[in-house]
Design a protein that fits this description.
Blueprint (H helix, E strand, L loop, with lengths): L3 E4 L5 H12 L3 E4 L10 H15 L4 E4 L15 H29 L2 E6 L12 H21 L4 E7 L6 H4 L13 H12 L10 E3 L5 H7 L23
Parallel strand pairs: 1-2, 1-3, 3-4, 4-5, 5-6
Length: 243
């Protein structure tokens, strides 16, 4: 399927690659950037979404891609403003965009939201802790969107693009000397499968480009349990009262 897609942070990097891929697949794409809308500002988000709806009368896909990372220092050395800005962009941004678009999707009875997540959201980080916190929180937004929307035809996914060679990743000391970059072609293939509905069974879960393939995920679909590919508490045993 195709339709109208809204992609935040689409002026460069992964966002630009994904927006280009959608257009190549026949989607009408609304590209967001800091010049188009500040995703952390309620009024700015509302104006942008209203403008898209005025011109297209519907939205079929929201891609929450806009993101940032805080300085790669331990939490005790972090700057509070830098730390919190990362949370605002990576959590408040997707929340506000989802909040603005979701009523339209629910009224239509169809639509998908793809949140650009990361393996960093599944664990704690020694440095750049706000990024890990933000991506963990983003997973909860995805899960809540899935829970509220699935019965009405609206699905949500955590999509980890792997480590693609971009301006942001090049600037991160943790990737100094890295040679095993994720191929953008793998990113696009998996992303389009989420966008067009082939992987709808994976709503509420995380998939990762460069590790997952469309074929492997389709093959694994019959084995999915309620907690597979979600972030949760790991019990210490069968008698753990927090199971």
């Amino acid at each position: 399927m195709t339709g109208v897609a809204v992609v935040t942070g689409a002026s460069r990097g992964i966002g630009q690659v994904l927006a280009d891929a959608l257009e190549g697949a026949g989607w009408s794409v609304e590209r967001g950037s800091s010049a188009v809308a500040d995703v952390t500002d309620v009024a700015s988000v509302r104006r942008w979404v209203d403008d898209v709806l005025a011109r297209h009368e519907r939205i079929d896909l929201l891609v929450n891609n806009a993101g940032t990372i805080d300085a790669e220092v331990p939490i005790e050395e972090s700057d509070p403003d830098d730390w919190w800005r990362s949370i605002e962009v990576n959590v408040r941004g997707p929340y506000l965009m989802t909040r603005a678009v979701l009523p339209t999707l629910l009224a239509q009875g169809s639509g998908r939201i793809i949140n650009l997540n990361s393996g960093s959201g599944t664990k704690s980080g020694e440095v750049a802790s706000a990024y890990n916190v933000g991506k963990s929180a983003l997973g909860r937004i995805t899960g809540s969107t899935h829970q509220s929307g699935q019965a009405k035809g609206v699905l949500a996914f955590d999509f980890a693009p792997g480590v693609v060679y971009t301006d942001m990743t090049r600037s991160m000391p943790r990737h100094d000397g890295r040679t095993d970059w994720t191929d953008p072609r793998d990113v696009v293939e998996l992303f389009l499968a989420l966008a067009d509905g082939r992987l709808d069974a994976w709503s509420g879960r995380m998939v990762r480009a460069g590790a997952d393939t469309v074929e492997a995920l389709l093959a694994a679909t019959p084995t999915l349990g309620p907690e597979h590919r979600t972030v949760g508490l790991i019990p210490y045993g069968e008698d753990d009262p927090l199971r």
